[in-house]
Specification:
Layout: H1 17-45, H2 54-74, H3 81-99, H4 108-131, H5 148-152, H6 166-181, H7 183-191, H8 204-224, H9 230-251, H10 258-267, H11 272-297
Helix pairs in contact: 1-2, 1-3, 2-3, 2-4, 3-4, 6-8, 6-9, 7-8, 8-9, 8-10, 8-11, 9-11, 10-11
Length: about 300
């Protein structure tokens, strides 16, 4: 006869307002980038050197990513227009910032498109809330203080803090640090592959920054997944990553890596040390957010019973 552990599964927690915005924005931006890369990879595999109408194709992919991210942020929440509107605003600001680098001017059409994304995101979130409404809350019956069941209740059900999963912290931080420092090697290796995506890239620093950010996100997700404390795991890993890449970049004989140099050139601070510190902090912050996201995306399904807690 199988033995049933005495440890109850953790209670499900609904994501908050800020969490929905973060998840929806990350999904929208990441989905747009993934669809863009898949489209050009498919075109290269078919023998086409370029895709016609890149401006309209890029705009369509941005709209698709924003709508899907807004629907995800509004699912399971009533009156969800505000979450989708915030997701659309975050995506609009992010794309306006990217378009403004290095020589693209912000005209009325681009500003109008950003405002339209805000409204479209709010409407998509409302659709998501109607298709996937919030679950009905059923309150559990409460026992009387004089009941025998209440007297049998012990303190084992109290919520205890989970310890830090240091192995995940070390593995996740190592992945992120290797991704930031070795982004140029990764790009060169991908360029040598058949139909490589980075064979004709001229802005190598920007490509390295994208690769470094993607690997840093993977490291943060690894650090926070299935721990029940993704935010804390990501915070520790992000601090370790920021300090590691700051110290290593400052001691490299050839200067900071191209991924770090791209961020330094974008922020354009007068002090090189301040720019290096800000770039390290941004990559560390990315790991922190990814750690929280990994904890939300891969929650703890069942805590392992400790020795002596089984029947």
């Amino acid at each position: 006869m199988p033995r049933t552990p005495l440890v109850e599964p953790p209670a499900a927690t609904a994501p908050g307002f800020g969490g929905r915005i973060i998840v929806g924005s990350l999904v929208a931006l990441g989905l747009h980038l993934a669809l863009w890369e898949w489209l050009f990879a498919a075109a290269a595999a078919l023998g086409y050197s370029q895709v016609g109408g890149e401006l309209w194709v890029g705009l369509a992919l941005r709209v698709v990513g924003t709508l899907i991210g807004a629907v995800l942020s509004g699912a399971g929440r009533s009156m969800s227009f505000s979450t989708g509107a915030f997701v659309g605003a975050v995506c609009g600001v992010a794309w306006l910032t990217i378009d403004a680098y290095p020589d693209v001017t912000l005209d009325v059409a681009r500003l109008g498109a950003a405002g339209a994304l805000l409204v479209a995101g709010g409407v998509a979130a409302m659709v998501g809330g109607m298709v996937w409404p919030p679950p009905v809350e059923v309150k559990a019956p409460t026992a009387s203080h004089n009941s025998s069941l209440f007297k049998l209740k012990t303190g084992d059900g109290r919520r205890k803090g989970r310890p830090v999963a240091w192995v995940r912290v070390i593995v996740g931080a190592s992945i992120a640090v290797c991704g930031v420092l070795g982004a140029d090697l990764i790009r060169q290796g991908m360029g040598k592959m058949p139909q490589g995506m980075f064979q004709n890239v001229t802005m190598t620093a920007r490509a390295d920054a994208l690769i470094a950010g993607f690997v840093a996100i993977i490291g943060g997700v690894v650090a926070g997944a299935a721990t029940g404390r993704g935010g804390r795991q990501g915070l520790i890993s992000g601090f370790a990553v920021a300090m590691a890449i700051l110290c290593m970049s400052a001691t490299l004989p050839d200067g900071p890596p191209l991924a770090m140099q791209f961020v330094i050139d974008v922020v354009r601070l007068e002090s090189p040390v301040a720019g290096l510190g800000l770039a390290s902090g941004l990559f560390g912050l990315l790991v922190v957010v990814a750690g929280w996201f990994g904890g939300q995306l891969f929650p703890v399904l069942r805590r392992r019973p400790r020795l002596g807690q089984e029947l």
